[in-house]
Design a protein that fits this description.
425 residues, alpha+beta, 8-stranded mixed beta sheet, elongated
Length: 425
């Protein structure tokens, strides 16, 4: 969340920052009204407490001199009752301010481009060239079904829409991609972790999914547990409530997990294939960084995700998200979009973000600099490296041949027991 003291002292800056998101956000004027009420309550309470302290001294003086202090004591008793009322009202106001802050998105970083829609996202770089195919390319779901690997009909029978069953080579290829991605992450110094796939409400709140995006989540009936929408949630919260030492930073983790999303609001979009599923696998990179170098770490993290695409020989581009296209918790985001010949378009395969201290405040993750008396909030970052299902899509569409077979990237062949090509049956 945003820093409460910063918001209280810089309402105009907060208003201007949120305006860059081009969306209807919590009303800053509402917070201003709450804060005015908070200040008024504090002033009244402090005034009464000062009077009470002065009255206590006067009561003691009257008693020492043998005079009647009952009237003054009665007045002070009423003061005490009013102070209790004011403290209770103040607790309510402060709770309302906290609720307001939990629903407010991060302010875009000064280097985040201006703009309101994805059409305003500038291309930062383009890597590689589009493959030249001398035949009409097919989409991945056509290839996957023709090659006997992807079965959406049976998935629909046992679960419903937006699910898939993978057979044979497809199941092995997804496993191979996940293992390959984890190995590349390890080369860059990330520690692999395997976390629970369910988390509690505090963890979801810590990374910003709750309270605003409850409809996008799958909640376990009768439990305060949620299926994770991304490994970002459990991995970031590994250090919730902790104070790290400065020399531990930067600290990086990678995790391969299933991800579960309701895809609320996506009705009718990408109904065929693996692009928008309720359940999919993803390798996530999470970094805990020193505030002074988190922006440099964002560039580094993005390069780590790109390395996978380079080794797979896939053409892609990197775009910077404008203010209006940023995620709720992000201050700056790069999206990596891979080229899909079958769809004849670029599709997102990774999103790499710097949240600054936004998540760290929510999850209370701090670090202590050497020689410092007080700890401070660190910065959190995360990125997909990569979405495994979408990587499988890219491998199929870019490796397809005129005879219906698919040539696998050399980097994956050791993970597929030397298999070079998926042949039609």
């Amino acid at each position: 969340m945003l820093d409460l003291k910063f918001v209280q002292k810089n309402l105009d800056a907060v208003r201007q920052g949120l305006a860059k998101r081009c969306k209807t956000e919590p009303d800053v004027a509402e917070f201003a009204r709450l804060d005015e009420a908070r200040i008024a309550l504090i002033r009244e309470a402090e005034g009464l407490k000062a009077e009470r302290n002065q009255g206590s001294a006067e009561v003691a003086k009257l008693k020492r001199s043998g005079q009647d202090a009952s009237g003054l004591m009665a007045a002070m008793s009423k003061m005490g009752e009013r102070i209790k009322e004011l403290d209770a009202e103040l607790a309510v106001i402060e709770g309302q301010e906290s609720d307001w802050l939990l629903k407010v998105p991060n302010i875009p970083h000064e280097t985040t481009p201006d703009g309101c829609t994805e059409d305003d996202n500038p291309v930062i770089r383009v890597v590689g060239e589009k493959p030249v195919l001398n035949f009409q390319p097919k989409e991945h779901w056509e290839l996957g079904q023709a090659l006997g690997g992807l079965d959406f009909e049976r998935a629909g029978k046992i679960t419903g829409s937006r699910f898939c069953v993978s057979f044979g080579w497809a199941a092995k290829l997804e496993r191979a991609l996940g293992a390959f991605m984890l190995d590349v992450a390890a080369e860059h110094g990330y520690t692999e972790v395997l976390t629970p796939f369910m988390v509690n409400r505090a963890a979801m709140t810590g990374t910003g999914q709750l309270p605003k995006f409850a409809e996008d989540l799958f909640k376990i009936e009768g439990q305060e547990y949620f299926l994770i929408p991304t490994a970002e949630v459990p991995v970031t919260n590994l250090h919730s409530g902790e104070v790290l030492e400065e020399d531990q930073l930067p600290l990086g983790y990678c995790a391969l997990t299933p991800c579960f999303r309701s895809e609320a609001g996506s009705y009718g979009k990408d109904t065929k294939g693996l692009i928008r599923q309720h359940q999919f696998h993803k390798v996530e990179l999470v970094r805990f960084s020193h505030p002074e170098r988190s922006m440099a770490d964002l560039e580094l993290l993005t390069s780590h995700a790109e390395k996978i695409l380079k080794r797979l020989g896939l053409h892609y581009r990197v775009i910077a998200l404008c203010g209006g296209d940023l995620g709720f918790s992000s201050a700056k985001t790069y999206d990596i979009e891979v080229w899909l010949p079958g769809q004849n378009k670029y599709r997102e395969i990774s999103s790499c973000s710097n949240f600054l201290d936004f998540q760290a405040r929510r999850a209370n993750i701090r670090f202590k600099a050497k020689g410092a008396k007080k700890s401070e909030y660190l910065h959190t970052l995360n990125g997909s490296a990569l979405a495994v299902g979408r990587a499988l899509v890219a491998v199929l569409e870019n490796g397809q041949q005129a005879d219906g077979s698919v040539v696998l990237p050399e980097a994956l062949r050791p993970y597929m027991k030397g298999l070079e090509r998926i042949e039609p049956k």
